[in-house]
Amino acid sequence: MNNYNKKALEEAGINIDVLYKRFMGDDVLIGSYLMKFARNSNFKKLQEAILENNTKEAFIVAHTIKGLCAELYIETLEGIICKLSYLLKCGDIEPARGIMPEIACKYEVLSKTIKAVYRNII
User: Fold this and answer.
1) pLDDT at 122 over 60
2) What residues are paired with 74 via a beta bridge?
3) Cα dist. 50→54, 75, 100, 104, 116 in Å?
4) What is the pLDDT of residues 62-78, one digit of tens each?
5) Which phi-psi region, left, alpha or beta, contains residue 24 (left: φ > 0; alpha: ψ -120 to 50)?
6) How far apart are CA 29 and CA 17, in angstroms?
7) H/E element, 101
8) What is the pTM of this model?
9) pLDDT in tens, 100-112
């Protein structure tokens, strides 16, 4: 991976050095997992559940995203998703709804960056 792509992924919130160690430097494998993250429907499900005031479903999806962020060392998104998950677990849908714009912005930047970096690899 070139330094430009590495920097882009780091700026999007991925601890790429730790991720590389975990995946033993296999860029194709890393790209495969990150692209799966960027392309899956969990974030859309989260947005829908929040809009529908479905706290239980929103919590399940937020918890799933939190786990994926932890496994892929997506640190900037992980922190705020963890907060969202906690709010939803406690049934606090309004404060959860309040942080969704920030989450959406971070997710969008992350997704676009992953797709740009790995579009020719995966």
Assistant:
1) no
2) 14
3) 6, 23, 9, 12, 28
4) 999 999 999 999 999 99
5) left
6) 14
7) helix 93-118
8) 0.91
9) 999 999 999 999 9
